[in-house]
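Protein folds are increasingly written down as discrete tokens. With that in mind, we are printing a sequence and the tokens encoding its fold.
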Amino acid sequence: MLYNVLLIILIVVSVAMIVLILMQQGKGADAGAAFGSGASGTVFGSQGSANFLSRTTGILATVFFLVALALAFLASGRTIESGSIMGGAATSAPAAAVETAPAVPVSDVPPAPAVEKASSSEVPAAPMEKTPADAEKPVQEQK
């Protein structure tokens, strides 16, 4: 019961935090108000809503973390019935005759053509590349 109550509180606090964060103005909004484009008389007073919204967001964030920690503590004490999948299968009704898979897979895709030997190909073989060890060997001059 306590777990469900804390879960509801966590959801309400998180929605309230989202709303309060979206209501706050950015840092650039203060520069516009200094040149006369902003309204100085607002619902929250002449100083604006910064103090009220900031403090309320901080309080809600603290409550959010405390409730989340309490939920984690309560959830750690819960035990989940452990068992294996095979144990549940053994108690169920025995399976009927097991069907075997067909020897040839049924597919709409045709099989790939057989690869021919490389010797019958008309394409010449690629030259062998020199390895770094071969590059370091000195070349002898012919006289």
In short: Helices lie at 2-23, 28-34, 50-77, 85-91, 132-135. The mean pLDDT is 75.
